[in-house]
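--- STAGE predict ---
source: upstream dedup step, 1 unique chain passed
mode: sequence only
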Amino acid sequence: MTAAPQSNRRLRTATAAPVRDASRTIRVPWRAASVAQVRRAVVEDLEGRDVSATVVDEAEIVASELVSNAIRHARPLSDGMLRVHWKVKAGVVEVEVTDGGSDTTPRPAPRTVWAPSGRGLRIVRSLAHEWGVTEDRTGSTVWASLGGPSRRRSH
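--- STAGE serialize ---
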């Protein structure tokens, strides 16, 4: 008797319906390798809910840009980490990245053809329904709303 070939596809077990409206928070080290970790976590989580493929793709890009910017331009939180939080409510995804702050407030860089970097927040601004920055004594949070308006006010 021969064993049946194994499929490369993941088998889904019968479970309750996916949670459509919920939030998730992860903390990742303040280092470049965390960008891929965050991207995977966001995509896997959102694909498990009934979030449109377009919004999942946009959230993947936005999360990558926000984490990359925090690593490049800000300080880590006091424990050496970054906090990444996302939530889904009525099909709208809000992604936020909290870091230990910076000497400047995050804003899109001016357009330039030859600069090797500086496009991150312009990309976020182009994909997001709205985005903004909140700052307090412990750091700053850059957030973006995808697929519709946020309950926050953008700056």
